[in-house]
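Below is a filled-in request sheet from our internal design queue. Each sheet records the structural input a requester submitted and the sequence that came back. We keep these sheets so that new team members can see what a complete request looks like end to end.

REQUESTER: design group, bay 2
PRIORITY: normal
MODE: inverse folding
CHAIN LENGTH: 399
BACKBONE (tokenized):
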């Protein structure tokens, strides 16, 4: 719950119109094992080492959670000690931190083929006593020449835990660590965009590549290889979905601005700003019309990608709303009157009521009073700002 609430402050994660499942499926298609609350690549190792340390010191199930927290807090202190290390989780809260790195990276550690234990962190702590008993049995079997073919391990042990752990002073990867992460990611994710980037790039991705679809131009300037067509197709899905749904986000904020403006709606500065933003979006859509038409004619291909990578099935109402919004946005004649389209306004209003019930801002009351003038207006970036940092950590570390 803390992770979900923290995401509300991230412009990439605010989902006012309820298409987050579609967005997240495309994110997982391109960048599995990542999330918007991750920061740096070395945390994949720091979290694994924390739990390897517990096992190496035979910490009991009863004491494991508390000891793991102590280790993670010590790691935070080491990273913050006299340095301005970017991306340190808990740098402000220190010992009172609520969102520990292990909670943020636990799921990704499985996708990166680093965690072998198949369960949540709490289940892992509870399993340790049984794990120690099993390990002792394996030792006895080995000594009696009746050893199992493959001893059970909770963690990949190709990269041993550093001798000075948990004394940590940097989030920069050594070359061996960067190579290790690249190899582990490749095991399950070689046919993804992030997997391809880690295998093919020797220079860091420039910061002015603000979205995944900025990559082709950035790679051309770097004289890097071209992204394979089947991976680029997923990028195009993300780009055009982001563009086609952006008008709906602007319309939602325009409707809120009109509602707060009351009788002064015609001259309200916020209302005029959103109308200008919608006009700018219409111009961008006009310029992209041929690509949008070709993309949406084959929308079954788009939904196939979404369904393949969705965590469970995409809720039928989420798919229906997304299709209605994109249909209206791509229709050039209808788009010309986008801000005043009554049917479209009803679609947006009904969708917010469906999602939020009594907390819907368009219903007025306290929910509207708490609106700060903009909500969810950042275009979907599909975790790219985090993915770029994690990828660059590994790319730079391999030099």
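RETURNED SEQUENCE:
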């Amino acid at each position: 719950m803390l992770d979900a609430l923290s995401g509300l402050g991230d412009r990439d994660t605010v989902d006012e119109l309820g298409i987050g499942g579609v967005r997240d499926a495309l994110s997982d298609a391109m960048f599995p094992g990542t999330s918007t609350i991750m920061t740096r690549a070395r945390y994949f190792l720091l979290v694994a080492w924390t739990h390897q340390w517990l096992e190496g010191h035979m910490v009991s199930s009863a004491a494991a959670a508390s000891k793991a927290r102590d280790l993670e807090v010590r790691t935070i202190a080491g990273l913050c000690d006299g340095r301005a290390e970017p991306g340190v989780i808990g740098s402000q809260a220190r010992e009172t931190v609520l969102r520990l790195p292990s909670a943020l990276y636990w799921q990704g550690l499985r996708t990166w083929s680093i965690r072998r234990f198949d369960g949540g962190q709490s289940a892992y702590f509870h399993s340790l006593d049984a794990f120690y008993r099993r390990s002792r049995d394996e030792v006895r079997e080995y000594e009696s020449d009746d050893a199992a073919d493959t001893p059970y391990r909770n963690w990949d042990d190709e990269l041993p835990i550093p001798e000075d752990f948990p004394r940590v002073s940097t989030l920069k990867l050594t070359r061996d660590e960067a190579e290790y992460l690249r190899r582990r990611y490749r095991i399950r994710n070689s046919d993804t965009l992030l997997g391809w980037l880690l295998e093919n790039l020797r220079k860091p991705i420039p910061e002015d590549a603000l979205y995944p679809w900025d990559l082709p131009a950035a790679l051309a300037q770097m004289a890097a290889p071209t992204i394979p067509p089947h991976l680029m197709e997923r990028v195009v899905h993300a780009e055009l979905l982001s563009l086609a749904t952006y008008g709906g986000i602007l319309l939602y904020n325009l409707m809120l601005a009109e509602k707060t403006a009351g009788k002064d709606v015609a001259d309200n500065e916020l209302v005029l700003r959103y109308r200008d933003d919608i006009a700018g979006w219409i111009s961008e859509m006009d310029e992209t019309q041929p690509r949008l038409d070709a993309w949406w004619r084959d929308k079954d291909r788009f939904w196939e990608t979404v369904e393949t990578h969705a965590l469970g099935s995409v809720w039928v109402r989420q798919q229906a709303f997304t299709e209605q919004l994109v249909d209206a946005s791509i229709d050039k004649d209808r788009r010309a009157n986008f801000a005043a389209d009554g049917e479209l306004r009803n679609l947006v209003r009904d969708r917010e009521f469906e999602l939020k019930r009594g907390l819907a801002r368009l219903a007025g009351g306290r929910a509207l009073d708490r609106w700060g003038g903009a909500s969810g207006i950042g275009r979907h970036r599909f975790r790219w700002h985090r993915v770029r940092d994690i990828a660059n950590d590994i790319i730079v570390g391999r030099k």
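SHEET NOTES:
- Residues 247 and 278 are 6 Å apart (CA to CA).
- The first helix runs from residue 2 to 7.
FILED BY: M.R.
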